[in-house]
Amino acid sequence: TLCSHMRTLRVDSRTIYVGHRPCHDPEAFIPPKFCDNRIVSSKYTVWNFLPKNLFEQFRRIANFYFLIIFLVQVIVDTPTSPVTSGLPLFFVITVTAIKQGYEDWLRHKADNEVNKYLVTVLEDGQRMRKESEKIKVGDVVEVVEDETFPCDLVLLRSSREDETCFVTTASLDGESNHKTHYTVPDMEQDLLSLNATIECEQPQPDLYKFVGRMHMYRNNQESLGPENLLLKGATLKNTEKIYGVAVYSGMETKMALNYQGKSQKRSAVEKSINAFLLVYLCILVSKALVCTTLKYVWQSQPVFFSVPTEIGLKYNLMYLKMFTDFLSFMVLFNFIIPVSMYVTVEMQKFLGSFFISWDKDFFDPEIQEGALVNTSDLNEELGQVEYVFTDKTGTLTQNNMEFIECCIDGRQFVFHCCIPSLVLLVSVNPSPCGDNEKEELFLRALCLCHTVQVKEPAGREDGLGGAPGDQVDGVLGQDGAKCHPAELRGFIASSPDEVALVIGAMKYGFTFLGMESNSMKVMNRNNEVETYQLLHVLNFDPVRRRMSVIVRSKSGDTMLFCKGADSSIFPRVRQHEVERIRMHVERNATEGYRTLCVAYKLLKPEEYALVDTELREARLSLQDREDKLLKVYNQVEDNMSLIGATAVEDRLQEEAAETMEALQGAGMRVWVLTGDKMETAKSTCYACRLFQRGTELLELTVRTLEDGGRNREDRLHELLLDYHKRAVQDAPPVKAGVTRSGQSPGDYGFIIDGATLSLVLNSSTDSDCYKTLFLKICQNCTSVLCCRMAPLQKAQIVKLVKCSKGSPITLSIGDGANDVSMILEAHVGIGIKGKEGRQAVRNSDYAIPKLKHLKKLLLAHGHLYYVRIAHLVQYFFYKNLCFILPQFLYQFFCGYSQQPLYDAAYLTMYNICFTSMPILAYSLVEQHICMEALLENAALYRDVAKNAMLRWGPFSYWTLLGVYQGLLFFFGVRFLFGNPALQDNGQVFGNWSYGTIVFTVLVFTVTLKLALDTRYWTWVNHFVIWGSLAFYTFFSFFWGGIIWPFLRQQRLYFVFANMLSSVAAWLVIILLIILSLLPEILLQVLRKPRGTHSRQVLHTHTHTHTDRYYPHKHTHTHRHTHTHTHTHRQVLPPQTHRHTDTHTDRYYPHTHTHTHTHRQVPHTDRYYPHTHTQTGTTHRQVLPPHTHTDRYHTHTHTHTHTHTDGHRQVIILANKSLVKRTSL
Amino acid sequence: MMASSYNAKEEDGHVAVPVGGTIKNKKPDNTAFKQQRLPAWQPILTAGTVLPAFFVIGLIFIPIGIGLYVTSNNIREFEIDYTGTDIDDPCFNCSQSFSWNNTRPCTCALDFSLDHPFESNVFMYYGLSNFYQNHRRYVKSRDDSQLNGDINSLKNPSKECEPYARNEKAPIAPCGAIANSMFNDTLDLYYVHPNGTRIQIPLSKKDIAWWTDKHVKFRNPGNNPNLTAAFQGTSKPINWRRPVYELDTDEENNGFINEDFIVWMRTAALPTFRKLYRIIQKKNNMTPTLPRGNYTLEVSYNYPVRSFEGRKRVILSTISWMGGKNPFLGIAYITVGSVCFFLGVVLLIIHHKYGSRNNSADIPN
Questions:
Q1: What is the pTM of this model?
Q2: What is the ipTM of this complex?
Q3: What are the entry keywords (chain B) (predicted)?
Q4: pLDDT digits (tens, 9 = 90+) for A824-870
Q5: Chain B within 8 Å of A57 (Cβ-Cβ)?
Q6: Is A1205 a catalytic residue?
């Protein structure tokens, strides 16, 4: 009864009976019910697939609309048969259903694989093989090495002696390091006789949290934490086998909970589509209303319009009749709403996203991975980004830490790697030697205060404990010569800082050898092994920004070592020590290093006893454990003494500066959001050229707030107003679309820190006023740096910008768990497959291996996707408008009788077959400006900024075009039909011929219009464009060539063939097509902004060559491939150039060997004598004069760059001075 | 292992992309398609490329237009309205009847003269105005299977034919409103010889309908040469005077394959239309088909149009390679050609004036 009592008491926790054995009172044992261990990721079963899937599909507004149209057609006497809308709808529904069914089948398969997997369960003392899905909560499960855990288990026993086991969670969060998990302390050896209950919290998705308590029969209690919990999906490593009791099963495992619904992001393009849809819906309704009204006006005329034609028109139920007439008109014109657009857009997004994952430029040889697309819905959003929020560590920087220097007790030490091992520590400030004790304490602290593991050497299978030893000796021997022994030693840690510190300590002579049953081994300078018992680890968390360990040395001293950010350490140490070190820390931070302070504290035995009990108590508590722990931590980590500080360098990511420059050139505002210190972050910003020399920095930090010595809020108010005045009011008004290239005088950078930000956002008075001021300032600044940010604050900032006026499109990029919130918050979230696990990647919409890939992702892919989809949407509306407009106009000539102009087959097939493929192909492969040019010239991105192609301007242009063409089609044929005797045998054409001529003109015009818009004719375009037209012709012959047995009406029998036999019909078709396209051609010729603009800007990126023929100074920039389409008319003498050049780059020393091959396509264009497109900016280099070969105009420059990292780069380039020269 | 890749988010049938799972740990293929580097033709429409096109279009269209216009003008066309709305009109008396089923035929004769001889074959059309043959309910009121000779449809006309599907239980053949309202005036043409004698001009009723209609689409039921038997059990359309098998005495032009009937069944596109009625074949090269002079049109006036204010007319026309007289095409071609030519000139000027400036603007940077 106790057990059940307990269960009812605490609803927010669950009780598990280990091995299903009742705890105290066998009589009253009621086995609690939990869900079984079946993983169900599938949505449907065989039985509910049809209704459920249909229901879900008809929830979509477009499908529902067409269902309604279909029903109206079935019920009311409408002009078109239900087939015309039923068939496309059926097609769409079926295709979607098949796709979803297939996906669900895959899920079923995967589920089955997991669910039918055989596992070993201990049942009544016997080992049973069971299917994984039959595991019940409370079962004791055996897992052997390299097996994954079938459900969430609490580790009861391990085959390892130290009662630990190792797991990797690569499939959960991507972290491939081995994590140590511990068995429940004081566990009985015999699991069969174990009588215990586990009480733990209800399932929750946080992978890193678990709170529980285990009651054993002996009546002792043990607290359980995440270190005891083995998660489903993780794999057992380095451990022969373990036993664990299932606590969460099936859909309640943390893994399953984690995979449930992220909120879906929708792109801005969809909003535009909906707006346009509304317009077209209005057009549709008004058309139907006009026709209905006119019909009744016309019919009420005293002259009864045509006796032989009117059939049994009854005037009772007039209103009902009017209503059905209205519905009929709606049905007749319903094609104006492009149902197939939804399908095409979906297909375009789905297929288009493959190009991102296929792009080999996104492939990173280091991690052997390319880009990853998690959401294809946002492709076009990549071309609309206005604000980029980037994390610093791991995103702008490599997160590849190297220990640079340390400062011990106010003295600075720099490590010199190439001096033989004897001089390990070099004191920069000459000082009395003999402070060795402090030094050693500092190094010991570095060796002990961490959570680093020693990676096992390859080939050794047994436990980790025995790993070090001789291996280390060998390494140490070479230590002096080898600067990076880490590769040999191999440390694994969750944060690279820690590894850098441990490696740094190793270089100074203190080597961490590893953990062995709760004791840490450290080899000191005298090659003696010191052993420390690890008593407690006070884990790192981003809020405290520090971590500590409590260890006991051999001599019995209990010490606490703490390391953390200066801001979190300085208040907790004795103040007189701070000043000496603060200077160093700040200097290091300014240089862009990551600094950490190290402090220690000697704990008296009674002090430790108190701490120990408090810690244990806090860990045992089931509720608010975090808070309680935090309280104890804060209490313990106080009054320490500061030993020193470390500086770790975090190198900039490859091409970080160039990427940032390109983004800014593309008109994006880059905000750096980091948890790092201001100084460090600032220097990174300078290095990334986010801030430049001329940038005026507006600082809004705790420091500036405290300057005035007044109330913080007053000062904040004052500063905000001041900055607002400077940055917003006095700044010259920024014209929309004007390039801010180079550093204009009004170039501001803004810096704010976390504390101030919360003051701005949460201040009690005028909070809104501050917020808007802040936002206005920031939006007028070139770059904004937010430092000392908590993860949630990052999201807050993103949200602030996202919801500001004009709702700009935001993008967040980050690599760590602390960036997840902002990645989820922003319109587009980008994860970097960095070193801090896979959390960011998992939550992102797109994942790329490196920051530099962002440039191509946005400038090339994003831009193209946007242009493609925008064109697709506009085109769909346009082509349906000029499709339906003639049908509307026909009503005026057929007595408003809803007579369709086109045959039902044409009505149905128009959007499905005749005109769908060209636009789909266009929207997949079109490059109105080729990728290289887009990358080369970031400013092109501004052309499409702010949804430029889907605003009302372009929309009305397309609509007008549709109306113009629709009118032309109809009236052109109308005039032709003034005399319907169109054949040379005097025979006449009827109404179906009329419709067929209009339809033929329509199909050809609409397809050719797309052909006119196509700037990038690949074989795909040729195939689908000419293929569609051929298909239309073929289909028309076919459809009109057979008496269809299933049709009662053979309206089109030989209509098409007869049409083609009429010269007049041919002539009118040709005339109308040309006349329809004429304004479009004219506009394209006259409005050359896109063409010329891009070209002119491109010209600014030309090289100046210095050599015999063309003097050029080569400030060139390179990437993998440069393509030039270089076209001019001049004839040049043959010339030969050859050059090799070697140059050094401050950041990446490498040798380039250039071989130029220039290919120029002679081209007869007098407007643009030459077009060139060239891409890439990476390193700036000055080349000596070089030689290259060319024969008249077809010459090719091939630069072959051989990099130190092994990949070859081929550059083809051309110069522009060529033109200049000959024109002189 | 439960892979993350199959975990497709399926909201609203939205597509999840299980790309990651397949691409992982694999270098993307370096194919031109996947790298979006397919060889491509990149045309840019500029004044330079369009100019010649405009000139060419202009140069082609204007002659075509002139040709069309001249051709159209050379076509002889004569039109005479015989509705008889005015009291002076010869057919006024006949037109007063609103009824379809006048047993007494009413005839009237119209005299007219041709100022110019019609040299080649002359096509005789009847024209109707304000007759909405393209009214939806009218257009669909037919049964093509019945007309195709399907026995089943003959006995059970399609619902579309309602209310002209059955006449007192007997199925109507041909059913539907179109057939029911078939044009039934008879037109005869006489040449009034200067010496006063009237010579009847032979009118051919062959080849007035589309060949495919006459030979494939329309067929008499069964293979019974005896049409009377074939149409046994059916009723004639209400407005008809004779059943369908008595439309003509010629076996090849009777029943459903009567060409007048077929022509009527091809519904017109617009409420004012003409339909081919007869062809006057040219006899020899020496004499014009219709010489200059006086003619008499004798109308057996059966078709009531007064009720819907319709008009009836007869058109005599010659035909060219482009069909009947229609100045529209010629004018349109001339206009479009001129516009293109004009635009070409304008572009040429622009090109010369601004093009060079454009070039020079490109060069210095």
A1: 0.76
A2: 0.92
A3: Cell membrane, Cytoplasmic vesicle, Disulfide bond, Glycoprotein, Golgi apparatus, Lipid transport, Membrane, Transmembrane, Transmembrane helix, Transport
A4: 888 999 998 876 667 778 778 899 988 889 999 999 999 999 999 99
A5: yes
A6: no
